[in-house]
Protein 1
Amino acid sequence: MKRSLLLTLGLATLLPAARAATLTELLPAGALMTLETRDASGAIGRVAGLLGSTMDAIVGPDDDMTQTLDGMQELLKGSIGQEAAVGVFTVGRPGQPYTPHLLAVSRVDELSSEFFGSTMKARPGARVGAYTFARQGQVYAGMAGGLVYMSTDKSLLMTYLGRLSGKAAPRLLDSAAYTAARRPVGAQELSLYLNFSATAKVIRGHLGRSGLPRLFAPVVDAIDTLGQYAAGFTTTATGLTAASAHAANAQGKDQPLYRLLTHSTDFHVQDIIPASAEAAQVRACAPESGAYAARWLSRVDLFEPLGFLSDSQLASHLERAGQYLGDECAQVTLAGGFRAGLDTTNPQAGLAHSVTYQSVRDLDAAKKHVPEYAASLNAAIAGLGGSLKPLLELSSSPLARSLPGGLKGTGGMDGAALDSGVKQLEDLLGGLKLVYAFRGNYLITAWSDEALKAALDETAVPLAQDAAFQAAGLGMSGAAWRYQPDLPEISAGDFSAVLEDAVQQAGGPADPDEDDQDADLTEEERAMQAAIAKLGTRKAGDAATPDGMLAGVSEAITGIINRFDGATAQSRVQGNVILGKSSVTYRWE
């Protein structure tokens, strides 16, 4: 009895330590970035299955390709599918510039261990506890204890191996910056962590030695104020779920940015968004967001080569708009927008289904200013084509083509081609025109009369009354929300027509020097070229032709798209942390 009690107490003492000893948690403190996987075999299997079915649709069943994909899948499942971590850390000494270096580690099974072992050359190295490593090219790498590990810096790798061996040292798990952003995300198959504040510190140290700290100070202050960000997702049989946490730096010097990041509101725009909308992204935008953007535009105005910012007076208009705009902003894709966006022959097709909504606090002020803003912006866009012509002429000049690594050998444009290109650009820009209207306490803007008319249709059922939207259970108070219903499926024929148009647009006269270029190819390059040519005529469907290949690509892409059955997301603010949750419905099989 006594022995059993002692054994139980011993296990209870060891379990917390064993749980804490994950690969990520033992990373050194102060990471600039980490990418982590944990029990990701499910995600690898689902993605691999999707990739396999896609390749079958494109090139037809192929035993060799199937074996290759299956082998790669098993290799990944036996390594990063178990547990892995990649981090970027700063290495240096006080008083000297700190340099970012990479550290990576993964658990491996027998198959993966054999593969990674075959890539490492037997060389004399060093040992830290039970872990050995040696220089392998430009990195330091080794394998021991069921782990494979590498780093671009020797001391960084040694500090990590020391922690794996039980040495007490500051760990990432003990970092308040890491835990504040990472813990709310929870356990995920794939996770990302970014420390903007630490990155800003590294940048500031380098700028302090360059003599240009003041010029870039606002940028560094903004990066520092971003604080820390973590996100992750886990696949499920019906799609995937994701979570994120953004811990903004309340002590950052860019306080306006901090207020923008942590702004919340109660949303009502769903009461006028049409229920037929294919996507709605809504966020809480602080009234000072326009003035904040205007300050950044003013900083880059002198460097803007086209003069568009000056001509449109965009910074001034954004600052004035902040005096009457509210704190709801929405970007909405109306019905038909997805199909229209597939039309590569008409870049403006998608704009005919896109509108923005912004709440208004002072309608009188808005109705007085918006006409002036729209006229100024449209006039600047109309003149943009003429501003681009000198730049196109410069890029086609003999001097530009003679620059090493630049446009040399591209052939440039002759006068007729240049005029034709400018004409097409002017026609494109000439079709862009900002239109607007007011509906209730909202300003609605669009780039086509068709989209604006659809947004103003008061007979349309609003999104708030749509049964599917209500079933999503999104909270209408917080920092942001996004809703995308199950989109109408597209056919392979529809997408094939789009691809054919794209191929025709990309086609052109043969290069007169093509034969000479082929003569310079090595045997390996000729073999690769032959393999690509064979792939291009491999059986796809029932046609062993390039057209059959195009049909296979169309079928594969539409198959991937049509598996998507909708998505929802929302975020809320808790103190200085913006917490996000999202869900995507997707048919993996």
Note: Confidence is low (pLDDT under 50) at residues 1-20, 405-412, 508-517, 531-544.
Protein 2
Amino acid sequence: MTERVEGHGGALALAALRAYGVREMFTLSGGHVFPLYDAAHTTGFPIYDVRHEQSAVFAAEAVAKLQRRPGLAVLTAGPGVTNGISGLTSAFFNASPVLVLGGRAPQFRWGSGSLQEMDHLPLVAPVTKHAETVFTADDIPRAVSAALTTALTPHRGPVFLDFPLEAIFSVGDADLPAPTPVAPVEPDPDEVTRAARLIAAAARPVIIAGSDVYAGDAVAALREAAEALQVPVFTNGMGRGALPPQHPLAFAKARRVALGDADVVVVVGTPLDFRLSFGDFGDAAVVHVVDAPTQRAGHVQPAASPAGDLRLILSAFADHTGDRADHADWIERLRTAEDAARARDAAEMAADTDPIRPARVYGELRRALAPDAITIGDGGDFVSYAGRYLEPSQPGTWLDPGPYGCLGTGMGYAMGARVSHPDRQVCVLMGDGAAGFSLMDVESLVRQRLPVVIVVGNNGIWGLEKHPMRAMYGYDVAADLQPELRYDKVVEALGGAGETVAKAADLGPALVRAFDAGVPYLVNVLTDPADAYPRSSNLA
């Protein structure tokens, strides 16, 4: 039965949001969106506010990623919306179903120079699946429901609506649309069979599983396919943890050997971008499995590319009944390389050097983090080490900026993670460069009693720029930060706590204090500026 709703525009929007499972709002206060606050406040709908709009969008994205449901950010008109565009763009690249609701200057005065008057749509349209101005209160439930359905339909992504002042403040009534179930995208069975035959017959196959495997709730199907076909699995993004590290087919350290010698590389739920050599794996055939036809790579000609619901495709791989090659020798070879790499990593993570090497930080973190801890990466050089040394043991526990590579996600992601999982550890790994983008939002975490641990790798430089620039030109510019800056004192001034660590032996006790603190706590680790992550450049 259709439900009739009435009230001001904020109440109408909130009714549609609740129907789709949205349970919280992230925002920075602005008069253009007061009715949304009124609707939330008077009905007990939680509001979390921030000090910069980008953090509101990043927090909404963290909820969308972790909980696989829509996240909501509410931004005031003009600069409120423009400040959120980097967050929207990250959500677009990460296929995160985020809804941004924006205020808008009154339509009846449009062109007269109202406060913060601008047309947002041309700015947000390129980085959203749908962008629309809703001109009447009566139309708000329809628009919100349609936008959320679009956001959840593979390939998922952010959507944007804005409301002129007279629309959101006016009273209206309308039918509340029932949530539209998103039907699975049926893959072409012939293409699925072609891919399964290639994988099963390969002598040295490899699977690389990415974020869409988690977003599409296909983790169990991935495991079934890997086990049925006996194919080693590597992961990136939110695919990390899809197979626990102790699983016999889970690999992380032997990627160079695997991709150098594989004859079939199966990339599931992640684009063939710079993180995967743009899909160039030498002589290996490429099978690219995507959740929608729009995600097929245009710059690579794969041997097969099934498109559709990842659960259906991976389950079909698991059920493949054709001839299968024996991959035991290949798996054993990779396991030998994996074990050797682990031994090298163990030595690096135990290094007792002065200054502290980043690897040692992660060695201590591996002991401090619980299996279900949410780990957030916000940085370049320092966070690159996290990808190497930390191995999530559960899916849905790893957040990084994704392929767009936008710094400043840290505090927003931390807020969204803490709201999503109030009983888990939440740990932000942050370079000292990234700290400049969002650290002020520690105040938001303190004020709203959202404790997190922040570990800053403080080497006083922009590591991914300084070293490559010196290699290219013999000098560097605009790549230095203030050495040994006391970021922990910044957090203390904002109401949290923290300490600076200069000796490797002090790392473990500092992390224990941080996780026991019950407030936002920053461990400011002075790391070696000469110890850059082993890559020539981040410009590829």
Note: DSSP finds 22 helices and 18 strands in the chain.
